[in-house]
Structure formats: C-alpha cells, structure tokens
Amino acid sequence: MTKRKKEKSGGTDELSNPTEGMEKRIDDNKKKWKNMAVRTLWTFVMIGGFFAILAAGHSMVVILVVIIQTLVYKEVIALAHVPSKEKKLPWFKTLNWYFLVSTNYFLYGESIIYYFKKAVLVDAFILPLATHHRFISFTLYCIGFVLFVANLKKGHYKFQFTQFAWTHMTLLIVVCQSHFIVNNIFEGLILFLLPVSLVICNDIFAYICGFFWGKTPLIKLSPKKTREGFVGAWICTVIFGFFWGSLLMRWNYMICPVSKDLTATAWSGMTCEPNPVFISQKYVLSPWLSGLLKRLIFTDIRTIWIAPFQWHVLVMSCFASLIAPFGGFFASGVKRAFNIKDFGQSIPGHGGITDRMDCQFLMGLFSYIYYQSFIKTTSLSVGTVLYSIINSLKPSEQLELLDSLQQYLIGQGLVEEGKVACVSTA
Amino acid sequence: MTKRKKEKSGGTDELSNPTEGMEKRIDDNKKKWKNMAVRTLWTFVMIGGFFAILAAGHSMVVILVVIIQTLVYKEVIALAHVPSKEKKLPWFKTLNWYFLVSTNYFLYGESIIYYFKKAVLVDAFILPLATHHRFISFTLYCIGFVLFVANLKKGHYKFQFTQFAWTHMTLLIVVCQSHFIVNNIFEGLILFLLPVSLVICNDIFAYICGFFWGKTPLIKLSPKKTREGFVGAWICTVIFGFFWGSLLMRWNYMICPVSKDLTATAWSGMTCEPNPVFISQKYVLSPWLSGLLKRLIFTDIRTIWIAPFQWHVLVMSCFASLIAPFGGFFASGVKRAFNIKDFGQSIPGHGGITDRMDCQFLMGLFSYIYYQSFIKTTSLSVGTVLYSIINSLKPSEQLELLDSLQQYLIGQGLVEEGKVACVSTA
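Output (structure tokens, whole complex):
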C-alpha cells in the first residue's frame, strides 16, 4: 500500500514542474484516471450483473453465454476481414453470420432435445423439428456451403478460402466449445460457476504472484507472464477451488440439474436427489498425519469430512492453472499475428470481450467432458426406461421383455419363482 | 468410333512432315499414348480392386476408406505448406499428423463403441478405453493444442495460425465426413456403394451430356462444365439410381447391417431381418396412368411393385446431381486458389486422389444423415433394453420397473390382472 502511494506521489511531484508539458500531463493523467474509473465501474457492473443473472435462473445464464459467444465470434471473424477486398464481396459477411446461426441451431437443438426430451416429444409443433433435427441442420449447412461456392470470385479465391477456413476454426473453437458450457449449465450451475471462477481466480493470482515474485519469463508470446506467477497461481487456485467448491456444493440451486423446470431461480427452492459425489464422507486420518497437523496448527484433528467432488475440483483446478492458460496464449498469438492490442471495444475500459474469455472456452469443454466421464451418474431412471419400452418396442416384445426381466430377477433371488410363474403364462 | 479414328489418323498425317520437330512430335505422341495407357490400366486396376475389396467384407471397405481419407488429408494439408518457411518449423508437419491421428482415434472409437457395444463392454482390456473414450480423446487434443501454442515462433504467427485454421477445416470437411461414410458401411454396404455409384454415374453422364449437347457454361469456377451436362446428368442419375438401387437391395450382403459379424464376405451368406424399406409393395396405377403407359410402351401395366427404398434413392440421386457437385466446385476453387492443376500424383495418370473424391465426402454425410432421419428403424431390441436395465438400474429400481411394466401391460389388456398381482408383493 505504501509502495503504491509513494509511486503516486512521485507522479505528482513530476507534475509540479511549471513547464509547457504540464497541462498536457494533467490532461493525460485525467484521461488515465478517467480510464481507470471507467474500468473499475465496468468491473463492478460486470460482477454485479453476473451474480444477478446467476440468481435469475438457468435460462438467463444460457442467454448470457449465447450473447458472449456471439460477441466473441464477431470479434474473431472480424480479424480475418480485409476491408478493402471485402467491399467487393457483399455476401461474405452475411454468410459468416449464416454459419453462426445454423451451427447454433444445430447445437442448441441437440441440447434442448437431449435435456427436455419429454417436453419436446409431447409438443406437436416442435416434434417434427426434433425428429429430423440433424437433417434440417445439415440442409441449412448445405445451403451455406452452396452459397459460398456460388459466390467465389476470380482473384479472391485465396482470400475467400482462408476466410472459410477461419470461420470453420472459429465455429469449432468458440461456438462448439461454448455449447458445452451451456450443457454444463443444464447439468447443474456449479459446473458452470466453478470452472469460470477457477479461471478468473487463476488469472488474478497469476497477476499478483507475478507482481511480487515474478522473475523468469514463462513464454515468448506473453512477455509479461512469469513462471513464478504461473506456479503461484496454480497453488492458490487449488486451495481456492477446494474451499469454493465445498461451499457451492451445499446449495441445491447449484448442484441440481435442470430437468423440466427452467423457471427455477436462486430463491425458488430447487430440490433434487443430489449426485453422491456431493455428499461428504468421513475420512480417518492416519496417526502420523494427525500428529503432523497437531504440531503445525495446534489442533487435534483425527477425522475429516470430504465429498468426492472436492477431489474432482482439485483436478479441475489443475486444468484451470496448467492447460487453460494456453487458451489465453493462443489468443495472444492471434493478436500478435494480426498486430492488434485488443480484440475489440465491447467492454468500456477492458478491450474486447474475447480478451476476457480466451481461457474460458477450453475450461468449459474440459469441465463438460470430465463431468460426463467421471462425475455423472447414469442418467437412466425407471421413468425413462419405461418410456422407451412403451414407445419403441412392439407389444409382443414388451411381453418378451417382461418375461426376461422376471427370469433375470428370479435368478438374482430378488423375486420368488413360484409367485411369478403365473405371469409368463399370460 | 469413326470420328475418333479420323482424328487419330489426322494426327498421324501431321507427323509425316519431315521437319526437325518430327522426332519430338513422335516422342510427345508416345508419351501421350503411354499416359493414356497408364490411365486406362489404372482405371481398371481401381475398378477391379474396388469390387474385390467390396466383396472381401465390411472391414476391408473400412480400411479402404481410412486409406483414402489419409491420402486426401495429406494432399489438402500439403497445399497450405510454404516449404521455405516450413523448414524452420520442424514440429509443424508432425502436429498435423498428430491431429489426424487423434481425430481418427476419437471418431473411430465412437463408431466402434456404438456398433460393437456388447463386444467392447465384455472385453476387460478395451472397457476402460471405451468408458472414458471422450476424455482420452480430449486429452489427446489438448496435448496437440498445447504443443501448437508452445511452438509458435515470432515472425511466423500469421502463417502458423492460418495453417492451424486450415488443418481444422480439413479435419472437419475430410476426416469427419469420411467418418460418416464408415458409419454407412456398418449400417449396410448399400449405403456405401449406392451413394458412391451415384456420384460416379453423375460425373460420367455430366461429361457425356456436356460432350454432346453442352453449350451454356454452368459456373465460372469450372469453365468446362455446362448447364446441359448438369441437367442431363441429373436425369440420367435419377434413372440409373432407381434401377441400380432396386438391383442392390435384393442382396442380403448389401442391406444387412454389421452387428458383431465383421468376418462376413460376399460369399458367406449374411442374413438378417431386412429393414421394411427394402420390401417391395404393390402399387395400383390409376387408370389414366396405365392408359398412358399402354399408349407409350404398348404394354398393359396395372400394378407395379416398388420398395420404399426406391423413392429414397430418388432423393439421393437428386442430391448427388444437384448438391454434391458443389463439393467438386469447391475443390476446383481450392486448386485455382493455390494455382495447381491436380492435388497430387497418388494415382498414376489420374492426378491426386482428392481430384477423384471431392464430391464423395458431402454425399457420404448426406447419405448418413438422410438414412438416420428417414430410413433407419428403431435400433432398440429386447436384448439391448434388458442389457441397459441390468447394467444401469439398481436392483430396487429393477423391481420398480418390473412392477410399472406389469401395470402398464395390464392397462393395455395384454396381461391379466389377477395373475400378476403376486409379483408386486415379492
């Protein structure tokens, strides 16, 4: 604190020189302060807005992600435009937006069909859209593809194909990845909020640790990043994640998946049977470990309660600290390749929205795949199985299944043989 | 025939001039003839090889597709290489191959898990690979991504990012699309052979019709293509497809999906319960239509037998004639953008393999999606349902399901009530 003050007063000292540049200096300083104020104001606006949206329910969070994704797509696509050439190719910008819309139609359709199966299957208007969803999406893509080829213009081929490739890469890296973030929201808000927090936390601590201990440069792409900051942020993120995760997982609104109830908010008292990973288990510490703790923190701890999810958070923290920053380096590289400082001016004082989101996409995809692979419990319930039996099997097959299931349960000793023999004769 | 002979003899006449260029002419002509011979020879080698592979079983066809896909990837990726710059970036070529391998690991893994579920789930060695397949694939991709970012070199950024985008577009357009061709093979060889034939047939008839009636140019990209050729080929492909489809669908080896039996060949007598779309239905012609036919072809036809699949083939023929050629135009555009005549020299006398495959990828994806959306019957069988019940439901849920199913079947009048009441008490 004192150090900073000194620097500031040092700055004021210089200003006291009654030279010609003085007024300019004051102007510059005013601008700097104004910029800082704007930046701070918008930081609070963003934080406040974020929590308000978070509390307003899953659908609001999804809308937020869609808006952010669209802005990032716009900023990244704009990079590859060469304005002078673009003027002669009026369809080109339209086509980029067309590809965004049709990709989103495909991806969000897939999510909605998967997560809201019953609602979709009941609605007579949506049903045909759902059953032929992939065909409709493919048709949309084909129209875009044909329009692209039909609009190829002599002398612009290389430019147009490069743009086409760039659009496809952006669709893959930004749009598809943010789609998985939306799936995370449906699986439970904690899967959205925790990864986002881990990345932000890692960003902040990389800055702080780098500021205090940073000496060795980390990567040529970002000269300001240091190894000390990288490692320090890793440690801090792991500790933060462990406690932040254990805090969030106590709240049903965070851990309950969305089933049909998109109207839930933070105050509506969402309930569900929690995934067992969120339930704390008792661990008995080995004598030497509790002895060590006693010496270190003067407390006699013999047992601790930890939920399996907290171990999973450790993995996610490590990913947020070690791999996700490469998303940021990638974005820095893109900025350097196109000789720009920021991706845009979407957020006053902060630069483009892409500058704030660069690591979030990779983290979101990781969280999704990690969750699907290691955390998610089977999504089969008695209801869904019965539903598919009734809808997809013929009556004769239903009877056959009933018979087989009984035979199996008899074999398992769960049903008494004599009592069920009567059914197979029906 | 005479016309061609005349042209040839005209060529020989010119050669009789005793000028200096004569020997060169003879040399040129020899080369031309040798080239023609090589091209013809290789055309027959390809056709013969193709049918031999087709008869050798599904797995051989899959291997063929994988080889072709790899060659196309190699040719397309090579386009964006700038050799002089590439030398300084030794990891770059390796990374491109790494991305191909990891994408294929992901895609073929998905197919294998989907089509050979039971075999995979039983094998203790493959099982962990299957249950965490997506996570492993993502890890592989992340390694590639991190290596790419870590290998970014100052002064090459723009080149490297363009290459990265190009690689991703190729992965999407070539590798992902050919993956769906593999899925088609597993669903039944007809879904592979028919689209491939339709595209080839359309190519040939576009050439023939263009040769005889071609006047109006079709698209600036390919000056040799004409509207007359395009429309003529469309009509011919529709007629060819209708009959070729009705011929192929009579053969079990063509229409049976692969379930577990990858050892089947054309002679092993594959059997299955055919999809109802392959079974011919009787259509009674309206009097005026049969009257029309009588006047036109002097035959009294009152009823015809047509399988629903033949109508589907009409749609596929139209796609092969109207949309798939845009894949070819796209490839022409790429060649023009990079100022090359052919994509490579993979097939002696034919140019690169990409030149022969350009329309096949889009057609393969279309066939897959069309099949999934409109032709495929439900894949649920009593066995798979029972399998998922036993593996994914707890014993208490299994009992609950048994009870619910019985209640449902009683409600439907398929099971008598008094006889089953005994089970729910078990």
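The first strand of chain B starts at residue 217 and ends at 219.
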